[in-house]
Amino acid sequence: MSKRRSIFSKYFFICSAVILISFICLGAVLLLVSSRYFEGEKKDVMERSVRSLAEESRVVMTDSPSQWRESVSDGINEYSVGSDADFILINQSGSVIISPDYSSEYSDIKFTEDALDNFGAQSSYLFDDFDEAFDQPRYVAGISFEAEGQSYFLLAVSDSSQRWHYTLDVMKIFGMSAGIVIIIVLVIVYFTVTKLTGPVKEMAEASKEIRKGNFAVDLPSYNVREFEELSNALNDMAASLKNYDTMKNSFVANVSHELRTPMTSISGFVDGILDGTIPPEEENRYLKIISSEVHRLTRLVRSMLNLAKIEAGELKPNMQYFSVLEPIVDSFVTFENRLEEKHIEIRGLDIDRVTLYADRDLIHQVMYNLIENAIKFVNDGGYIEFGFKPVGNMTVISIKNSGDGLSEEELPLVFDRFYKTDKSRSLDSTGVGLGLNIVRSIIKLHNGKIMVRSVQGEYTEFVFTIPNKPKPVDE
User: What is the CATH number for 424?
Assistant: First the structure.
């Protein structure tokens, strides 16, 4: 069993991972911001409070030199409760003389002179253990002031646990909110990815049906441009494969028919000669028929091989310069007797030299097939007319013959494989219906185009283009 994950699981995993990583990054930023915000706010509150209390204490000490202790103690208790910090008063020798009533941890603390040098007339804010005066570093805002000729230090002390409690509360709120949002978003992502991958699954199922040979699939329209384009491409591919399958079946049937007919004739006549059914004096006539059918089979096989090579890209044209009259004259030499029998007039060959740049042998086959087709359908005493017109790096060539012409229904079919008009079947039983198809394939190989036009009772004309010089590089 394949361990490859489905496109749904991949998209869902990627979207979920992006969302989770985003929330983790957001949480980290929030943690940093909230920590710094708390520290900044705490610093402002502690410095403001220590300055205010220091001024109040200085005034009380100056106004009541002998009774200030109780008033200052009340102020320290009040500020300690209101500022969420412990305020302590230290004398110039470093001893704590007043601390909050609810705490006795400061009674044995002794600050060194170096530690107190951190505080001056302007408030200072530090995170330190002050020469191990505290058991662990603490946030301290302090200020010094003079009263009654003595120096005092007022400190606001707060341990770091408050910061972490604040940060923890913020992260709890963020975590709960993020959890709810993530659940909601993942549900939305689940249904969105399900809807997004739905068309992919439909197309995959359609592809499986096409692989099984069911070309009747018809994918619906989608409101996403890429899916719509892919859906149209698959529908077009299915239609093309259906047409190809129909053409393949028709091709096989036609080839089978074209091969079976002469082989049946050959087999019947040979058996007739061998078993004596055909008398000796008639054997020569039937051997000529057998020879004709063998040549017909040879032409069929050769034409099919040429078509297969062209379609497979194995036949590369040998481009060279030559006169357009060369393959035409060579073809007329082959059909000289038939031209005389039907008293056909040839027009349009009294021209100056017209040069082509193409594969001489392939163009000879084009001219041969078109001239043979024209001779086959030209009326007795009629004409075959040629036209040549250089246009840029291409030459437009037309071959027109008088005669009954083609109906509007027949025009679109003349280049199809094995297609033979009713008139063609009656005039030439040896043809295999591949001549014009080969002509079109060779002209396409030269990057040219071919068309046919006809007026019933008047003429049929084939018009095509062949290069007269190399194609420019920038085209």
Answer: 3.30.565.10
The DSSP call for residue 378 is: B
Last residue of a domain, one of 164, 179, 210: 164
**Which of these, 174, 186, 182, 185, lies nearest to 26 by C-alpha position?**
174
- Per-residue pLDDT tens over the stretch 379-422: 999 999 999 999 989 999 999 999 988 888 888 888 876 665 54
**Which residue bears the tokens 């005669």?**
403
Using alpha carbons, select from 133, 84, 81 the residue that is nearest to residue 112. Answer: 133
> How many Å from the N-terminal Cα to the C-terminal Cα in the chain?
51
Are residues 387 and 458 located together in one domain of the fold? yes
Q: What range does the domain containing 256 cover?
A: 225-309
At position 454, the amino acid (one-letter code) is S
Cα–Cα distance, 454 to 462 (Å, whole number):
9
- Residue 2: both structure tokens together: 């394949």
The whole-angstrom separation of Cα 199 and Cα 280 is 74
Q: What is the CATH number of the domain that holds 110?
A: 3.30.450
pLDDT digits over 287-304, tens only?
887 887 787 677 667 767
Predicted confidence at residue 143, as pLDDT, reads 92
169 falls within a domain: no
Would 358 be classed as within a structural domain?
yes
Provide the strand spans (E) within 66-137. 86-91, 96-98, 124-128
411 and 324, same structural domain? yes
| Domain-embedded: residue 174 | no
Q: Examine residue 160 and state whether it is found in any structural domain, yes or no.
A: yes
Dihedral-angle region of residue 148 (phi above 0 means left; psi in -120 to 50 means alpha; beta otherwise): left
Q: Is the pTM higher than 0.70? A: no
At 179, list the tokens.
């959890």
What's the CA gap between 433 and 199, in Å, rounded? 44
Among 164, 191, 215, residue at a domain's last position = 164
CA distance 437 to 307: 8
Residue 321 confidence class, pLDDT cut points 50, 70, 90: very high
Tell me, what's the pLDDT at 254? 62
User: For 93-115, how does the pLDDT look when each residue is reduced to its tens digit (9 = 90+)?
Assistant: 888 888 887 777 787 788 888 88
Domain count, the chain: 3
342 and 429 fall within a common domain: yes
Do 392 and 343 fall within a single domain? yes
414, 376 contact by CB (below 8 A):
no
Task: Determine the pLDDT at residue 424.
Answer: 46
Q: Are residues 355 and 444 in the same domain?
A: yes
pLDDT of residue 356: 94
Predicted local distance difference test score (pLDDT) of residue 1: 42
